[in-house]
Amino acid sequence: MMWQPACEGFSNKRRKLLQSRLVFAGTGSEHQMPTQIANLVYNDTQRLDLHLADEPGRPLVICLHGGGFIGGDRNDERCRQAVRLLTEAGFSCASVSYSLAPESNRFAMWPRNLFDVADATSFLHNHAAEYAYNCSRFGMLGFSAGCCLANLYIQGGTALFRHFGYATPVLHPAALVGFYGPYDFPSRQPERRSDDALVNLYHSPSYWLRKCDGPAPPPVLHIQGDQDTIVYPDQHQAFKADCEQRGYRFKAIIAKGFGHSFAPAATNAAGASINLRRDITEFFERHLAVA
């Protein structure tokens, strides 16, 4: 019987990728190509990896790594876990690199790093048909600095990019999952904020959320360790309070006994374990559902 794709209009490249996974009756073997398309160049300096769901037309989640704006990698353990749990749940996922600053000044690449996020999002939107994922309702997932950048993209929207004079289409994610994201730089510890008051202000998702007069932002699932000594829990509480005061949808998970940089499934120094895979996948399934 002739195999037919589950959705129409996708490219020969994607068709060949999907056909390569078929098990042909009577052969007893599966000829499978990798689901990962690595090192896609999305602007002049940055790359991303695309991990495709087996079923065409599934929603996309954009994953941004952490690292304090000076380090981290799109293939670190946290991102690998996120990609794995999302693709196993039937989502396509893009793991994105962005410009990193030198250790001497973690703000040196601001706002270039946020422009990279905008460029990656536009690239993924423009190539949705080519790779047969659904970008009409997409999600974002970020760890620490990556959560901050995703939150800035969402809360700042058109106003933020207009402020910096950066011409880019601004898309609207349907959900955000964030891990221990910095939210309000003026209230952070001195070694974690800039000496420039305006950088602290504009680098804060809090500033853009509080001045927002447009549509409500998407639902948020924010995960915070109560023993975090890098992004203090008061950052999480401020984010939660701002959203709840405005009637925005916000779900909080406090990881008791955990500090910073833990993955969706992790064990702390005391031997306690946490597994947030189900929380994350159910949140995205609820808010990225495609009719």
List the helices and strands and how they pair.
Blueprint: H1 12-19, E1 36-41, E2 47-51, E3 59-64, H2 77-88, E4 92-96, H3 112-126, H4 128-131, E5 134-143, H5 145-163, E6 175-179, H6 197-202, H7 205-210, E7 220-225, H8 233-245, E8 250-255, E9 265-267, E10 273-275, H9 277-287
Parallel strand pairs: 3-4, 3-5, 5-6, 6-7, 7-8
Antiparallel strand pairs: 1-2, 2-4, 9-10
Description:
By secondary structure, the protein is α/β, with parallel strands linked by helices. The chain has a single domain (33-287), classed as Alpha/Beta hydrolase fold, catalytic domain (Rossmann fold, 3-Layer(aba) Sandwich). Helices cover 32% and strands 19% of the residues. It is built from nine helices and ten strands. The strands form two sheets. It has an eight-stranded mixed β-sheet, with helices on both faces.
The number of distinct helices, counting runs of at least 4 residues, comes to 9
Quickly give the CATH architecture.
3-Layer(aba) Sandwich
Q: What share of the residues does DSSP label as strand, in percent?
A: 15-25%
Approximate helicity band: 25-40%
CATH topology-level fold name: Rossmann fold
